[in-house]
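Email to the structure team, subject: Alpha/beta hydrolase model.

Hi all, the expression group asked for a predicted structure before they design truncation constructs. Nothing fancy, just the tokens so they can compare against earlier work. One-line instruction: predict Alpha/beta hydrolase, return tokens.
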Amino acid sequence: MCPRYDPRRHTGEVPRPALLGLTSVVVVVVLVVGLAYLFQRRLIYLPSTSAPPDVANVIPDGRQVTYPTVDGLALAGWYAPGPGTTVLVLPGNAGDRSARIPLAVALRARGHGVLLVDYRGYGGNPGDPSEDGLAADAKAAHGFLVGQGVPQDRLVYFGESLGAAVAARLAREHPPRGLLLRSPFVDLPSVAAVHYPLLPARLLLRDRFPVAETVRGLGVPTTVVYGTDDEIVPPGQSAEVAAAANARTVIVEGARHNDRVLLDGRDLLDAVHAL
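Reply from the structure team: attached below.
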């Protein structure tokens, strides 16, 4: 029997069901990528919606302070002075300053002054977070400490995860006595590609946070601390940042990204104290 003649074999025409299926896939991909682009900052910045507690009840000699940013925001933070170096804590992308209370208490016990900050949009602060916005917030916190009489050579910047990028950028403009980067990533697109492998993160992201590039040739004594089982920031990326900064490295075996040992563990505290 002769096969039935199909003119599409000769014209190259795609069968209609296949064409409709292909169109649907393209529409879904475009929709997903478009939504990811429009709402990317909601995926990056995850502030707590609860109000922080009264600092007087959680940090010895701590007080709430307010300082202005260059773009007119009034930001709140917690400040506790101390006889040793003063640690400016620049947190990661989630929660608020109350999550860093154990770190502040432990640093105070070792004689350090501490400023715990919340970025714009975090901890009841006004504004919406962005890369440049967080940089402005860090500069405002630095300005507050200088205004309190803390000399530059008595300042240590502590940058946690995304805050490592904020700390590194601040160190470029105002070099501190020392820089501690806890669980830093190479840059935000590099870590986003790990968690969203099907999205073109390098093309989509407006906020880049280039940590490795920023610390290269910085010339500030730097320590990088990270855990070997970090499930958020691949340990290899933290090691790459350490190499770029020519930094001392403290590797905490078995530690995951949010484990308590990377909040106020002995190895971490020793690393801060040594700067």
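Residues 16-38 form the longest helix (23 residues). The mean pLDDT is 89. Ping us if the truncation boundaries need rechecking.
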